[in-house]
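ok so for the tutorial part 2 we go from a plain amino acid sequence to predicted structure tokens. step 1 is just haveing the sequence, like this:
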Amino acid sequence: MRARQRGRPDNQTPAVGGGLVYVSSTYGVASLHALDTATGRVRWTSELPHPAATSPVLADGVVYVDDQQGDLSGLAQATGCRAWSDTQGLAQLDGTGNLVVAGGTIYIGATPTRSTASPPPAASPSLPPPG
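step 2 — the prediction. this is what the tokens look like for a chain of 131 residues:
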């Protein structure tokens, strides 16, 4: 795979799975891109409410990302369609942690004294249940 600049990259680590690499960008508008690992071509781009604060995480066919306002988004891995979002600022801590998804719970790390865990909101009826 050849490297290719897609706007101004953020400091997050890309996620890789299912033949795609997922990378956030803030060039023009905050967004998440899925690039084909074989060709480097953009498979899909999805706008985010605000610039990403964490690296994208893949679990159960969903790409999870937390933004700088503390809003969580879950995008369908294959299409980039929004599966759900939580705009209550649940994840807004201090921007030093990352997301981890395990056992149906989203863990959001921060400083040693501040962290949180939450089950993801119910999936959109248009998406099949994980599993």
